[in-house]
């Protein structure tokens, strides 16, 4: 079945929804962006991006100025909807579907039958069916066959979203095969990657599997780093050498795994089959333990130094060259350190933010400073995020300091 999607509503204008809406609009589709935050809606309608993502501003500006993207707080009528809202996890590490449910209920009153509903949010197996059920419960006048429902997980890498959203292959999981075909039609308006059709549950699992694969591999690298520290081997040299094997490709150790995807998604698999998910659970626990291991290194360095130690922490974001602090191991290390050593002066260097987040601004012994100030004042330098600007520091700027390098860039 070929469908014409003249109008598309994108519900949730965050890291995924906003680029999706901007790109759709830039490809000539009349797009309505919807968000619960008045600040976000106003910013988008001014053509402004409320977060850092290279290349998004230009596309958004073009889309808004051309009248192809209009943001609002309320869901308008449209031929298709893309739902890109958060799926955080609860304290018991199962998925919190309340944002998806709220989005479904907000769309329901606008439906006339025949619309395509695409869930893009990363979701546990069964969430797409659940979203359809929430819509149908709000609209008993509609039948299952009146709606085309699909799950098309986003797989873009923050920092490269504008490129990857267009060029990545996409998995399209239909609740019915008709829905999968209709969703393919919509994505083919802007996606040059391969569009791979399957059922909704397999698509849900595929996304979780990709991120769990990465998590397990990072856990392997993180475990190696702890082993190597114990036996006196340089883990980065070790990995570089091992990776010369044609079938070995080990990832990089670090201070832990952050962000809102890899540190969260594997738990959705564990939650769906707890008895069978031993490796995936252990990998999560290994990566979650890494910030405290780095913290231990810093505490030992402080205790071995003078009573008036000044510690500089380089990087707070969850990965290099972005401003995103969500689930950041660097931030965890900084706030636990501030708590454990209230008399140590802590200088945080994070060139991508203007002010400290609340978890650190409330600590009297932490301040946000520039690189030069930290280098001049600190005797212990801790590298937490491998931002490009930190890679380019010269070795002479580091001489005479105690160095703890969780990313292996100052070796
Ligand atoms: N990390 C390491 N060592 C590595 C690679 C990463 O410690 O060798 C750490 C990073 O520093 C960071 C965390 O892992 O703290 C996650 O970073 P990332 O760059 O691996 O991934 P995300 O969270 O930015 O994006 C991932 C991507 N998934 C995969 O690569 C399988 C992206 O394609 C997904 O779209 C995204 O999750 C998502 O939204 O699910």
UniProtKB/TrEMBL annotation:
Gene3D superfamilies: Cytochrome c1, transmembrane anchor, C-terminal (1.20.5.100), NAD(P)-binding Rossmann-like Domain (3.40.50.720). Its EC number is 1.1.1.336. InterPro entries: 6-PGluconate_DH-like_C_sf (IPR008927), NAD(P)-bd_dom_sf (IPR036291), UDP-Glc/GDP-Man (IPR017476), UDP-Glc/GDP-Man_DH_C (IPR014027), UDP-Glc/GDP-Man_DH_C_sf (IPR036220), UDP-Glc/GDP-Man_DH_dimer (IPR014026), UDP-Glc/GDP-Man_DH_N (IPR001732), UDP_ManNAc/GlcNAc_DH (IPR028359). One of its GO terms (molecular function) is UDP-N-acetyl-D-mannosamine dehydrogenase activity. Keywords: NAD, Oxidoreductase. Residues 312-411 form the UDP-glucose/GDP-mannose dehydrogenase C-terminal domain. SUPFAM superfamilies: 6-phosphogluconate dehydrogenase C-terminal domain-like, NAD(P)-binding Rossmann-fold domains, UDP-glucose/GDP-mannose dehydrogenase C-terminal domain. PANTHER family: UDP-N-ACETYL-D-MANNOSAMINE DEHYDROGENASE. Belongs to the UDP-glucose/GDP-mannose dehydrogenase family. This is UDP-N-acetyl-D-mannosamine dehydrogenase. It comes from Nesterenkonia massiliensis.
